[in-house]
Input
Amino acid sequence: MVVWKMAIVVAGSALALAACGSSSGDNGGTSACTPKGGTASGTASQVVKINPDPNTVGKFDPATVTVTKGQTVEWDWIDNGAQHSVTSDDTTTFDSGLCSAGTKFFVTFSTAGDFKYHCTIHAAMTGDIKVS
Ligand SMILES: [Cu+2]
Output
């Protein structure tokens, strides 16, 4: 009986910690989940899922996407174990900030080029949008 009560108290405090962590931007990143260079809704030609991965924490799936000028790419945060960002390597073209599962981010590419991006807190998470 005493052990049961302890377990419930521990579970409750873990939930409180998790809720706190997901609402603050102080776990390694400097940006909150505020889209820059993109929007939180839209109509996409291609969808990239942000999935959990046992080796790299998270991964962009697929890592490489090809679109034509004027088309929109959507990122869907699936991983509910960690926050991730979608940040262009130049850090200025687009940046979702650190976001949690359930977030969507849409970027429309109006110029041709090779737009590499990454997650700001997981160095192994990289992706590439090829625009022709
Ligand atoms: Cu990440």
